[in-house]
Amino acid sequence: MKIRKFINRFLMLSFLIALCVPVISFANEPDMIESKSQLTIQRIEKRAREIREEQEQREQTMRMKLEGHNQRMAVLQRDMEIFLAEGDQGIGEDNMFYPIHKSNLTIEEMDSALKGTGLEGTGRAFVEVEEKYGINALFLAAIANHESFYGESNIAKEKNNLFGFNANDADPYNLASQYSSYEDCIVKVGKKLKEFYLSEDGRYFKGFSATGMNYYYSSDSNWPNKVNGHMIAIAKKILEDSDHLFADLSQ
Predict the structure, then answer these.
(1) In Å, what is the CA distance from 237 to each residue of 113, 118, 152?
(2) Vertex 202 angle, CA 226 and 122, to 5°
(3) Is 226 exposed, middle or buried (0-12, 13-18, 19+ CB in 10 A)?
(4) CA–CA separation, 96 vs 103, rounded Å?
């Protein structure tokens, strides 16, 4: 009898507790909802701050790129005028047309100059060779344009040789070196030109200019004028494209 009474009381107590739990839960629910809402708002505000900071950083980076571009274009224009007036042997070492002066032109700027030619898309290779080996990207691209007829010569197309490298007059096509790609050629020949033709201790060094390099590089006595002309053409193309190359940065 006592056991039955105990069981009945236990069941009754359990029933009352079961009834009270939802009441307690419902009583606390507004606080829980408010807490979750505050947490959600905090997360949204934090993400909004992060987005604003990222946007400000992007805008600052773009402004710096635009300023750098404008400065390079001003120097390029000035140095081109000096180059035209003084010739390749009359310019100083800090001139952007000096064969071993780093022009610091960007990949985008070099690509804009080569767009529409057989060398389109090779801007990165010229810029990387300038940075790694110290041979001016303008100068190297000018030689490639001249020797490969803008990447359209047979030796260029069939051997990926943009510089007529080792294309001796006796048998130019068969003697010309073979490369796996235009980029492979730019890197390998750029390194050799710097080492052998544009270093004071180089085997074929005759001065830091197309005129000096021509002594051993080409049998064409007018080669320096042609290469220098290509340098001017590349520079003019970059300057012409300058206004729209970074037009979106100024908006």
Answers:
(1) 5, 15, 19
(2) 50
(3) middle
(4) 5
- pLDDT at position 33: 67
Tokens of 7: 């069981």
Q: What is the residue-averaged pLDDT of the chain?
A: 86
pLDDT in tens, 34-56: 676 787 777 777 777 778 777 77
Cβ–Cβ < 8 Å for 83, 97: yes
Q: Are 109 and 245 in contact (CB under 8 A)?
A: yes
CB atoms within 10 A of CB 230: 21
pTM over 0.85: no
SS3 letters for 174-190? HHCCCCCCHHHHHHHHH
- Residue appearing with tokens 């767009």: 115
Token pair 């830091």: residue: 208
Token pair listed for 167: 């294309």
